[in-house]
Amino acid sequence: ERDLRKLTTLFPIVVDERAKPYGWRWSDHARVDLPGVDVGEALSLALIEQYLKPALPATMIEVLASRFRMAADKLSALSGSNRSTRWIQKVKVVAPALNLLPPVIPDGVLASVQEALLGDEQIDVSYRNADEQQPKQLRLHPLGLVLRGQSTYLVATAFDYTDPRLLAVHRIRSVERLGVPAKRPRGFSLDEYVQSGALEFGDGSPIALVAMVAPTLARHLAETPLASDMTTQIVGERVRVSATVKHTWQLHWWILSQADDIEILQPTALRKEIGARLAAAASTYTAPKSSRRSTKSASNRRIQ
């Protein structure tokens, strides 16, 4: 019995203590062909379940479910005697942006997309753009899935076009797997696609950014530079920053989030656009209520 109790920390074994002698059996949904886990493996599985589960195919999660439970039981059983098991309580991953709730994905959509991606097969989807009320039908060739914050995006080509596009999985209303091989653009690499800045939205073309920033922001950028070629120069009470960056909406959002700690000098077009957005935002707080509504409507049209 002592041996059996020790084995419950390694294997999915449960005990029935309602009557003596106690009965022992495999737990529900246990895979008896799985070996036990040591502390290192248990920690790895716990971290995978906590942080990488959204990136795993549904079929793989089903296979790993008993393994995840085994890892949790192992860490719980040894928490009092092995300090390594408490590592999971001492490490967390926190998003740098506002922690929004994840969007709701219709039942079965993500699993179907994952299976089609694994099988390299085409899918027909009903997809609704953010600025449209009615969904449209698309035939897609899945190329990859990318997790960006709380949202999951499908990278795919549509119909016979070869240019990859991004589709938010939570905007897919339904999926039909066709069992027909998907067409993959020659030379396509998901790594290169992400590195191009596609997930930052925009064309990703390089621009020479020049800005005057407050000392507090300059100290932050000294630790986490905008680019490898970034240079700084103290000019009076501010710091002149120069760097080659990708022209994306992510860059716009970051600049706007710095408020009066940054002034864009170059490129001129970016300076004008940021100035117009800030002026429109300021007018929202100062204009009469009737003017606010018209300003807000114009801003929403730009975002869409």
Give the overall shape. extended
Beta content comes to 25-35%
Task: Give the helix proportion (percent range).
Answer: 25-40%
Order of helices and strands: HEEHHHEEEEEHEHEEHEHH
Helix tally?
A: 9
Main β sheet profile = 5 strands, antiparallel
- Got a strand count? 11
Distance between the termini: 65 Å
Which features characterize this protein?
9 helices, about 35% helix, extended, about 25% strand, disordered C terminus, about 300 residues, alpha+beta, 5-stranded antiparallel sheet
Q: Could you explain how this protein is built, in words?
A:
- Helices cover 36% and strands 25% of the residues.
- It has helices at residues 2-7, 39-52, 58-77, 109-119, 190-195, 215-223, 249-257, 268-286, 289-303, and strands spanning 13-16, 23-26, 121-127, 136-148, 151-158, 165-168, 172-181, 206-213, 231-235, 238-246, 262-266.
- The chain is built from nine helices and eleven strands.
- α2 (39-52) packs across α3 (58-77) and α8 runs antiparallel to α9 (289-303).
- A hairpin with a 2-residue loop joins β4 (136-148) and β5 (151-158).
- It is extended.
- A five-stranded antiparallel β-sheet has the order 6-5-4-3-7, with helices on one face. The chain has a four-stranded antiparallel β-sheet with strand order 9-10-8-11. The protein has a two-stranded antiparallel sheet with strand order 1-2.
- The protein is of the alpha+beta class and 304 residues long.
